TrEMBL record:
<dbReference type="Pfam" id="PF07525">
    <property type="entry name" value="SOCS_box"/>
</dbReference>
<dbReference type="Pfam" id="PF12796">
    <property type="entry name" value="Ank_2"/>
</dbReference>
<dbReference type="GO" id="GO:0035556">
    <property type="term" value="P:intracellular signal transduction"/>
</dbReference>
<comment type="pathway">
    <text>Protein modification; protein ubiquitination.</text>
</comment>
<feature type="repeat" description="ANK">
    <location>
        <begin position="122"/>
        <end position="154"/>
    </location>
</feature>
<dbReference type="InterPro" id="IPR002110">
    <property type="entry name" value="Ankyrin_rpt"/>
</dbReference>
<dbReference type="GO" id="GO:0004842">
    <property type="term" value="F:ubiquitin-protein transferase activity"/>
</dbReference>
<dbReference type="InterPro" id="IPR036036">
    <property type="entry name" value="SOCS_box-like_dom_sf"/>
</dbReference>
<feature type="domain" description="SOCS box">
    <location>
        <begin position="390"/>
        <end position="426"/>
    </location>
</feature>
<dbReference type="GO" id="GO:0085020">
    <property type="term" value="P:protein K6-linked ubiquitination"/>
</dbReference>
<feature type="repeat" description="ANK">
    <location>
        <begin position="261"/>
        <end position="293"/>
    </location>
</feature>
<dbReference type="Pfam" id="PF00023">
    <property type="entry name" value="Ank"/>
</dbReference>
<dbReference type="GO" id="GO:0070531">
    <property type="term" value="C:BRCA1-A complex"/>
</dbReference>
<keyword id="KW-0677">Repeat</keyword>
<keyword id="KW-0040">ANK repeat</keyword>
<dbReference type="GO" id="GO:0031436">
    <property type="term" value="C:BRCA1-BARD1 complex"/>
</dbReference>
<dbReference type="InterPro" id="IPR036770">
    <property type="entry name" value="Ankyrin_rpt-contain_sf"/>
</dbReference>
Length: 435
C-alpha cells in the first residue's frame, strides 16, 4: 500500500443493546453524555440519564483516527480470510468510562440505575478499567455492587493482572478481600499476579500476594517463575527489585529455577547486566556455570549484552562471575568477545586479566574498529603492546593467588592482610591500562 487514507474526525455512535443491528449516529445528547462521563460531570449525567438514556447499559462505539489491520470473515473470503486496513474502533460502556477516569460519583449514579458491573463489550470490564487507573474508590464501589473480581478480559487477564503500578496496591488489596483468586493464570501467558508484580518490580504487591497464599514458584506458559521474570527486567537495577528478590527468596523461591530454554534467574540477571541481583543469587548458591539449551553460561550472557548495557557498567557483572569461579571463555574465542565488546574496554580488561597468559593475535587488532580504538586509545595501545611478550610478575602472582582460591576469590581475597588497592587488583578491578 503506497498511501494511507487521510485521517478522519473521530465520531461517536451509541448501540442501545449489544446485539442490536441499529446504531445511533452521534448527536448532541450523545456527545454530551460521553463528555459528562469523561469529565466526571455528575449533574449533566443525571439530566441526560433522566431525559434520554434511561438504559445505562448502552454501548458506545468510538471510531478513532488510528489505523489497524483487521481480518474479515472466512465465510465470505475463504479459509485465509481477508485482511484490511481500517480505522480502530473501541466498544465501551458508560460504567467503563466512569471507572477508567476514576469518577466515583458518576459510577455510583450509574450503578444505582442498575448498570451491569460485569458488562465488557470492548474486552475490558469496569473493574479492569479501574485497576488500570489505580482508582481504589471505584474498585471498592464496583465490588460492593458484585462485580466479578475474577472476570477475564478478551486478553485473558483478570483485574489483578492489571494492577501494574504502585498506585494500584489498594485495588489489589480490595480484590483479594473480595475473593479474587491470587494464583489465577492469564489465558495466554499463564502468568499469575505474582509474575506481574515481578515484571513491574512491585515489592508491596508481591508481599500482599504471598500473604494471601500465592505460590512463589508458580510457572508461566514459558516455565518462568516470578524470580526468573524479575531478574530479566531492565528496570531491576533499583533497590526495590533487590528487595523483591530478597522477599521471594525468603519465601522459598527456587534460586536455580529453569525456564523452557533452561535459563536460570542468574542467566537473566547477567543478561540484564544486573550485578546486584547476580551477587545476591550467587551468595544464595546459584550455579555460576549453569548452561542453557544453547550451551550459554551466565558469563556469556553478560558478554552478549554488554554493548547495550554500557550505562550500568557491565564489567561489574563479569568481574563478579569470575570471582565466583565462572569458567573463562575459550582463549581461541576471545576474538569474538573483542568484536562484540570492544566499545566496553573495562569488560575486555577484566576478562583478559583473568587468564595468566593468553596470546594476542593479529585478528584481535583487526577486531577493534578504528573509531573505537581512537576513542579508547590509551587502553588499546597498552593492550596490543603485550603481543609476543610475557605478562609482568605482578600479574603472574595475581593469577597464582586466584588459581589457589578458585571459586572463593570473592570471599578469601578481602581477608588477606594487604592494602585495599591490592585487594582490588586481585579481584580484577579495571585500571584503564593493561600491564
Amino acid at each position: 500500500m503506497d498511501e494511507l487514507p487521510e485521517p478522519v474526525t473521530e465520531k461517536l455512535q451509541i448501540c442501545p443493546k449489544l446485539d442490536s443491528e441499529h446504531t445511533l449516529t452521534a448527536h448532541a445528547p450523545a456527545t454530551r453524555y460521553y463528555t459528562a462521563l469523561v469529565a466526571g460531570d455528575l449533574r449533566s449525567l443525571e439530566v441526560l440519564t433522566d431525559r434520554y438514556y434511561q438504559d445505562v447499559n448502552m454501548v458506545f462505539e468510538i471510531s478513532k483516527n488510528e489505523l489497524e489491520w483487521q481480518v474479515k470473515s472466512q465465510g465470505s473470503y475463504g479459509l485465509s480470510g481477508l485482511w484490511s486496513l481500517e480505522y480502530k474502533r473501541e466498544l465501551t460502556t458508560p460504567l467503563c468510562l466512569a471507572a477508567r477516569w476514576g469518577h466515583t460519583a458518576c459510577l455510583r449514579h450509574l450503578l444505582r440505575r442498575r448498570a451491569d458491573p460485569n458488562l465488557a463489550p470492548g474486552g475490558h470490564g469496569p473493574l479492569h478499567e479501574a485497576c488500570l487507573g489505580g482508582h481504589t474508590d471505584c474498585v471498592e464501589l464496583l465490588l460492593e455492587y458484585e462485580a466479578d473480581p475474577n472476570l477475564q478480559s478478551d486478553e485473558g487477564l483478570a483485574p489483578l493482572h492489571l494492577c501494574t503500578t504502585p498506585d494500584s496496591l489498594g485495588c489489589a488489596r480490595l480484590l483479594l478481600r473480595h475473593r479474587a483468586t491470587v494464583d489465577l493464570p492469564s489465558e495466554d501467558g499463564g502468568e499469575t499476579a505474582l509474575h506481574v508484580a515481578a515484571r513491574h518490580c512491585l515489592c508491596d504487591h508481591a508481599r500482599l500476594y504471598l500473604k494471601y497464599g500465592a505460590c512463589v514458584d508458580a510457572r508461566s506458559a514459558r516455565e518462568e517463575t516470578a524470580l526468573s521474570i524479575l531478574c530479566g527486567q531492565a528496570l531491576g537495577t533499583g533497590e526495590d527489585c533487590l528487595q523483591l528478590c530478597r522477599l521471594l527468596a525468603a519465601h522459598g523461591a527456587d534460586i536455580d529455577a529453569r525456564d523452557e530454554t533452561r535459563r536460570s534467574p542468574l542467566h537473566k540477571a547477567c543478561g540484564a547486566a544486573n550485578a546486584a541481583l547476580a551477587r545476591f543469587l550467587l551468595l544464595r548458591g546459584a550455579d555460576v556455570n549453569a548452561m542453557d539449551y544453547g550451551g550459554t553460561s551466565p558469563l556469556r550472557c553478560v558478554l552478549q549484552s554488554a554493548i547495550f548495557k554500557q550505562d550500568i557498567r557491565p564489567h561489574l557483572t563479569v568481574q563478579l562471575l569470575l570471582n565466583h569461579g565462572s569458567q573463562k571463555i575459550w582463549p581461541a574465542a576471545f576474538v569474538k568477545v573483542l568484536k562484540s565488546c570492544a566499545a566496553v574496554p573495562e569488560v575486555i580488561e577484566v576478562l583478559f586479566n583473568s587468564y595468566s597468559q593468553i596470546p594476542i593475535s593479529e585478528k584481535w587488532i583487526e577486531a577493534v574498529p578504528e573509531e573505537v580504538f581512537q576513542q579508547h586509545q590509551l587502553f588499546y595501545e597498552s593492550f596490543f603492546r603485550l603481543a609476543g611478550t610475557v605478562r609482568c610478575l605482578q600479574h603472574l602472582c595475581r593469577s597464582a593467588i586466584r588459581q589457589k582460591f578458585g571459586s572463593k576469590c570473592y570471599r578469601l581475597i578481602p581477608l588477606l592482610p594487604v592494602p585495599k588497592p591490592l585487594h582490588d587488583y586481585l579481584l580484577l578491578e579495571p585500571e584503564g591500562v593493561v600491564l
